[in-house]
Amino acid sequence: MKPIDPIRVQKIIDSFLHKEVYIHLETTTGAYTSHHNQNSMTIVAFVRNAKITFSQGKIKGTGPYRVGLKTEEGWVYAEGLTDYTVDEQNRLLMAGHDRDGKLAIALQISETPFS
Amino acid sequence: MEERLLVILPHPDDESFGAAGLIALKRKANVPVTYACCTLGEMGRSMGKPLIANRETLKDIRKKELEQVAKILNINDLRMLGYRDKTLEFEDEEKLADHFEQIIREVKPTLLVTFYPGYAVHPDHNACGEAVIRAVKRLKREERPTVYCIAFSNDRFEHIGEPDVEIDISEVADIKIQALKAHRSQTYSIVEKIEEGGKDLPQFQQFFHKETFWIYPFDDEK
């Protein structure tokens, strides 16, 4: 992955417009957060292979970035994205990593299901 | 009876943190070791510094690391069971126990290592331990291996007391360090600390000098 170039990422997001796509959306504090600090909560959520179509998609902010996808009946939203790549299967993988390289959020878009 | 060790844990690297010393000692004594690793840790959070993995490539990276560690620990029989990281507790408990039971009946271990259900922090750890115990309970008493459980929840001593077994692993500490290092995608920050301060830092005493286990108390054996 490399640091997000918002102009480049916007073009890639646009390439998925009006198509049926699969998304992976995830956020995590790490499974051991409350074990290491009892005042913190462990929070993890992921949705893998939700099928959506979006009529508008934007990347906003000055970094870390936000991405919002307007779907037929709702929204997909992610904040805190720092890095991206397009892999060999033409999937757009975006993620937010902290200073130690730990993933805190991920939003991924693909025309085929994630394995 | 011929000694055999079976290790059933959910994530690549669980074995290196919790039982690498025991495994290495058993292999030195020529005891066969089977390691059944339930998932590939594909939902891990650490992606490397600099980033070497992403959510989609992490699975293959961790699989290769696990295979490398099996070589370092000289594990004879490595099995990757194909479950998905973070989802073990949502599988059908009986089916998961069926899978473990089949492996236990085939391997016929005299000693089995898993997590202590309820005292192993991560939901996958607890679910794995719970299903292993469920599977062992199905065996006749005389067929059951001794079960060494790994526990590290903050409330463990309060509920299950002091560990029953403390193993001095000093003579294989270097193998344990190598194994931890080989899980590079997940352990780089810990390895950094080890290399800065050496393995004698107080927080690493436990890691490189001893491993502790609780022997699971089956109700019907009391």
TrEMBL record, chain A:
Pfam families per UniProt: DUF1806
SUPFAM superfamilies according to UniProt: Hypothetical protein YojF
Alphabetical list of InterPro entries matching this protein: DUF1806, YojF_sf
Superkingdom in the source lineage: Bacteria
Gene3D superfamilies: Hypothetical protein YojF
UniProt name for this protein: DUF1806 domain-containing protein
Organism per entry: Aeribacillus pallidus
From TrEMBL, chain B:
Protein name in the entry: Bacillithiol biosynthesis deacetylase BshB2
Gene3D superfamilies: LmbE-like
Pfam families: PIG-L
Cofactor(s) the protein needs: Zn(2+)
Superkingdom field: Bacteria
GO molecular function, one term: hydrolase activity, acting on carbon-nitrogen (but not peptide) bonds, in linear amides
